[in-house]
């Protein structure tokens, strides 16, 4: 995975591989990459034997809704019975039930729960994660969510990148005047900036939520204050969110299931990363997935993410998303690996720090119980992690248990 910048189009097909290789780490950073024979001259205090295993950069999950309260397992039965989402919303379910629970929860409760999910992401080999607010839809709760992310940034081994998604939905109290709600959310930006609570601002641009025009002026206002922007774009209908992302120079445009031909062409000609979330189509039982093949053939840089959230994608397992990308987006293993490492890092402005094994870079490394890189998307639904190193330190150790299970 050499070269600078994200891997675009055809470049996603070429992985740089070393066999019988070794990685040396000094002071938390990569200090040596080469043949294991050559590594013998490298003096090491600790040696981890990865013989027969796959070693890759730590995975990057560039789109999660990490901080929320409650869960919505009862809605699964309603969905099975064919109750439409709008009806679930009317009965007080859907996103609004998560908003209510999150408003009620204390910061401590939210912290404990978010940490639980983040620990699990790390156990799946994810060493850098983006986290959005957006389940408060009022000043206090949005700030409470962002402060939880900040606390985790300071204490958790995973690198967290924070995004303000106050414009996630229209709260019932602003049903008839969404513009006033957006104004209210914009007024929070000064506090967010002063307390360094987020570096990105995101909006849900979709029929029935926020229009392209509202999204444009909201994100322009955020940009004028120095924030980088992202868009939840064209998840359901080709509204023009993808085109807007390119127009605004958004760092990423996310979802894109309904992206138009023109949107895909513009994306390919831009630096905006296409973040695809096949877990959402899968979990909502839809047939339609984002057109990853067209995007890659057009020359776009594609990334993958869990979209971890309590409604449309309750999973921390990015490895499972890699399998979905193979089966539903028809991505090949080489493309999938770029999409969960280097391109995912560029989707959150961390392309120069995460997603590649490069000398001098922080040693975020995963050792997998897998004979090769194609094995991970192939053998689906389980956790293949053997060991995770974050900044050179072993933070997850699996598959090296002392306990022996005897078989009689
Ligand atoms: Zn999302």
How much is the radius of gyration in Å? 21 Å
Number of helices: 16
> Strand order within the widest sheet?
4-5-6-7-8-9-10-11
Can you write the helix and strand succession as a string? EEEEHHHHEHEHHEHEHEHEHHEHHHEHEE
Structural class: alpha/beta
Estimate the global geometry from the Cα principal axes. Answer: globular
Overall pLDDT metric? 94
Ions, cofactors and other bound molecules = zinc ion
End-to-end separation in angstroms reads 46 Å
Q: How would you sum up the major sheet?
A: 8 strands, parallel
The tally of strands reads 14
Low-confidence stretches: none
Strand content: 15-25%
List the helices and strands and how they pair.
Blueprint: E1 21-26, E2 29-35, E3 54-57, E4 59-61, H1 74-80, H2 85-90, H3 95-104, H4 107-123, E5 126-132, H5 139-155, E6 159-167, H6 178-186, H7 189-194, E7 200-205, H8 212-224, E8 228-233, H9 241-248, E9 252-255, H10 261-268, E10 273-276, H11 278-283, H12 292-298, E11 302-304, H13 318-328, H14 333-340, H15 342-346, E12 365-368, H16 375-378, E13 385-390, E14 393-397
Parallel strand pairs: 4-5, 5-6, 6-7, 7-8, 8-9, 9-10, 10-11
Antiparallel strand pairs: 1-2, 3-12, 12-13, 13-14
Helix pairs in contact: 4-5, 6-8, 9-10, 10-12, 13-14
This protein binds zinc ion (ZN).
């Amino acid at each position: 995975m050499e070269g600078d910048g994200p891997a675009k189009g055809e470049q996603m097909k070429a992985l740089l591989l070393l066999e019988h290789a070794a990685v040396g780490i000094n002071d938390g950073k990569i200090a040596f990459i080469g043949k294991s024979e050559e590594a013998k001259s490298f003096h090491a205090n600790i040696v981890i034997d990865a013989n027969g295993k796959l070693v890759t950069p730590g995975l990057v999950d560039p789109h999660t809704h990490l901080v929320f309260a409650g869960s919505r397992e009862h809605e699964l039965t309603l969905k099975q019975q064919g109750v439409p989402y709008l009806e679930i919303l009317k009965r007080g379910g859907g996103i609004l039930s998560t908003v209510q629970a999150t408003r009620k929860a204390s910061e401590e409760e939210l912290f404990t729960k978010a940490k639980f999910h983040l620990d699990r992401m790390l156990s799946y080999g994810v060493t850098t994660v983006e986290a959005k607010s957006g389940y408060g839809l009022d000043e206090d709760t949005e700030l409470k969510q962002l402060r939880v992310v900040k606390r985790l940034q300071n204490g958790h081994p995973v690198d967290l990148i924070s995004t303000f998604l106050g414009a996630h939905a229209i709260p019932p109290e602003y049903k008839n005047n969404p513009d006033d709600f957006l104004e209210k959310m914009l007024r929070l930006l000064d506090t967010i900036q002063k307390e360094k609570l987020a570096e990105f601002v995101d909006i849900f641009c979709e029929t029935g939520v926020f229009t392209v025009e509202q999204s444009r002026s909201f994100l322009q206002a955020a940009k004028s204050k120095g924030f980088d922007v992202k868009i939840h774009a064209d998840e359901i209908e080709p509204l023009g969110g993808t085109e807007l992302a390119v127009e605004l120079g958004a760092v990423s445009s996310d979802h894109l299931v309904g992206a138009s031909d023109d949107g895909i062409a513009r994306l390919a000609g831009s630096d905006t990363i296409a973040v695809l979330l096949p877990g959402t189509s899968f979990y909502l039982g839809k047939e339609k997935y984002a057109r990853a093949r067209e995007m890659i053939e057009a020359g776009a840089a594609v990334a993958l993410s869990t979209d971890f959230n309590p409604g449309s994608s309750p999973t921390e397992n990015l490895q499972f998303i890699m399998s979905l990308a193979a089966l539903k987006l028809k991505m090949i293993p080489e493309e999938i690996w770029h999409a969960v490492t280097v391109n995912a890092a560029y989707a959150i402005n961390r392309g120069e720090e995460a997603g590649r094994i490069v000398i001098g870079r922080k040693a975020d490394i995963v050792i997998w119980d897998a004979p090769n890189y194609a094995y991970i998307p192939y053998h689906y639904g389980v956790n293949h992690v053997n060991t995770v190193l974050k900044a050179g330190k072993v933070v997850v150790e699996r598959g090296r248990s002392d306990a022996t299970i005897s078989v009689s």
